[in-house]
């Protein structure tokens, strides 16, 4: 995957587009085409950075050497809204193979039928998906029994920390539990009067990758019950999460003081970002950040560790939030068997997955690739591989509303941290009602 980018396109807009287009009955493609016949496939993806595009082009070249009859035309830097607009229109200009950075939208792709069911293709190729893909990654590529996507590399999130700051503060290792996290963060915080000069860790949800769902994953939450109803208010871990974040904030001077510091940071991708300038001693981020730090040479020694876990779940330490790129076949494609050959190569061929992962510094998305000796041996990268393999690591569950429930959680979290939710339990019940109403509207 590319360096950090928004993973939630406008879920409401996407849902509206699917409903208005009548995507419950998309145009039917062809699954009986001859995959050995000469054909040109259109593959649309979201990668845009030169190094990423180069790595993907090299992947396509390897595929075309194996399949001389298939030519692949790639179009990059394409977002979900553009892909779905093309799939709704159909015709010769629509893509055959599509990818998305937004795992939250898989529920919509599967439920609408816009992306083809891949189980028949997997069965025809003799591929046991449960043996090939890690359970968590497989979970976010299907919805209610429909496997309409497959993982195409993954992201794992962990804790980057300033080793020099740790040494100066006499801290020997990264924190593993939330109580240790609070103590270490407070010890690393530097103030000038009421102004914070350096935060040990900034829990503010608007900071870079600090989307609340990413940190909430350390609690192992369940968003929905067996009937698809939101149950955040029923899970005591939800309240624990928000109260822990508040305590973490208060231990360093409070939300307003931290927010003033956040507003002094430069762009996340620049050398003026909070961690790069030493204004953050610890920082939540994905595996791609390690490569960027090496290239930027920030002037301090740094390390990576799993993000801390709740004290009463200390045995799950090593877990983390997982997400990734997903890929599928357009239901309207007239070349689905040929498209499957491309998708199968990109997602299940061990050598291809390892080469692509090494090239763009992302986590491999198959069990075999995760255990390959050819993987980048860099210690920081290996930390994220262990997070990806941890059985307690968690991804967001798919929903027919896409990422709309995550957006609702984010908006609620902004209000909580700013002190605008006087009764947390009542607020969570209202959040559940909102999520359920959004789901019902999407299903009507």
Describe this structure in words.
It is built from 19 helices and 9 strands. It is globular, with a radius of gyration of 22 Å. The protein starts with 10 loop residues before the first helix and ends with a helix. 49% of the residues are buried. The longest helix is centred in the C-terminal third of the chain and has 20 residues, at 424-443. It is α/β, with parallel strands linked by helices and 444 residues long. Strands 1, 2, 3, 4, 5, 6, 7, 8 and 9 form a 9-stranded mixed beta sheet that branches. Helix 1 (11-20) packs parallel to helix 3, helix 9 (178-188) runs parallel beside helix 11 (236-250) and helix 18 packs antiparallel against helix 19 (424-443). Mean pLDDT is 91; it is low at 1-28.
Brief digest:
With 444 residues, the chain is of the alpha/beta class. The chain has 19 helices and nine strands.
Number of strands: 9
Mean pLDDT: 91
List SSEs in N-to-C order: HEHEHEHHHHEHHEEHHHEHEEHHHHHH
Q: What is Rg?
A: 22 Å
Largest sheet entry:
9 strands, mixed
| Strand-residue proportion | 5-15%
Defining key terms:
single chain, 444 residues, alpha/beta, nine-stranded mixed β-sheet, 19 helices, 13% strand
Can you lay out the helices and strands and say which pair or pack?
Layout (H helix, E strand, L loop, with lengths): L10 H10 L18 E6 L5 H17 L3 E6 L4 H10 L7 E4 L5 H7 L6 H6 L4 H4 L2 H5 L10 E13 H6 L9 H11 L1 E3 L2 E7 L10 H5 L19 H15 L4 H8 L17 E7 L1 H9 L5 E4 L16 E8 L6 H13 L1 H11 L6 H4 L8 H11 L14 H14 L6 H20 L1
Parallel strand pairs: 1-2, 1-3, 6-7
Antiparallel strand pairs: 3-9, 4-7, 4-8, 4-9, 5-6
């Amino acid at each position: 995957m590319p360096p950090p980018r928004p993973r939630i396109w406008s879920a409401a807009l996407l849902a509206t587009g699917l409903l208005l287009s009548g995507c419950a009955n998309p145009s039917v493609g062809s699954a009986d085409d001859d995959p050995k016949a000469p054909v040109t496939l259109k593959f649309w993806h979201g990668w845009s950075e030169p190094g990423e595009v180069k790595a993907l082009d090299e992947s396509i070249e390897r595929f075309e050497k194996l399949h001389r009859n298939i030519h692949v035309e790639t179009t990059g830097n394409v977002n979900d809204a553009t892909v779905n607009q093309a799939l709704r229109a159909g015709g010769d200009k629509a893509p055959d193979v599509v990818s998305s950075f937004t795992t939250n939208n898989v529920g919509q792709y599967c439920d609408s039928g816009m992306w083809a069911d891949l189980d028949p293709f997997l069965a025809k190729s003799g591929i046991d998906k449960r043996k090939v893909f890690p359970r968590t990654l497989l979970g976010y590529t299907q919805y209610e029994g429909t496997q309409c996507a497959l993982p195409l590399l993954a992201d794992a999130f962990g804790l980057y920390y300033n080793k020099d700051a740790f040494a100066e503060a006499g801290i020997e290792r990264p924190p593993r539990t939330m109580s240790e996290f609070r103590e270490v963060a407070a010890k690393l915080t530097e103030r000038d009067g009421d102004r914070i000069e350096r935060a040990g860790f900034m829990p503010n949800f608007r900071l870079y990758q600090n989307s609340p769902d990413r940190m909430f994953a350390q609690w192992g939450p369940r968003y929905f019950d067996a009937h698809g109803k939101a149950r955040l208010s029923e899970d005591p871990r939800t309240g624990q999460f928000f109260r822990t974040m508040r305590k973490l904030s208060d231990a360093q001077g409070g939300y307003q003081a931290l927010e003033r510091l956040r507003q002094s940071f430069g762009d996340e991708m620049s050398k003026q970002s909070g961690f790069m300038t030493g204004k953050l001693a610890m920082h939540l981020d994905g595996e791609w950040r390690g490569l960027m730090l090496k290239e930027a040479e920030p002037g301090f020694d740094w390390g990576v560790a799993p993000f801390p876990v709740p004290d009463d779940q200390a045995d799950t330490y090593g877990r983390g939030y997982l997400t990734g790129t997903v890929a599928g076949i357009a239901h309207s494609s007239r070349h689905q068997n040929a498209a499957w050959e491309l998708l199968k190569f990109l997602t299940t061929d061990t050598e291809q997955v390892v080469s692509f992962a090494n090239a763009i510094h992302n986590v491999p998305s198959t069990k075999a690739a995760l255990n390959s000796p050819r993987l980048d041996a860099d210690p920081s990268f290996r930390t994220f591989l262990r997070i990806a393999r941890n059985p307690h690591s968690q991804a967001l569950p798919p929903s027919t509303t896409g990422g709309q429930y995550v957006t609702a959680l984010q908006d609620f979290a902004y209000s909580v941290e700013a002190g605008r939710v006087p009764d947390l339990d009542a607020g969570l019940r209202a959040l559940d009602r909102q999520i359920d109403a959004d789901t019902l509207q999407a299903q009507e």
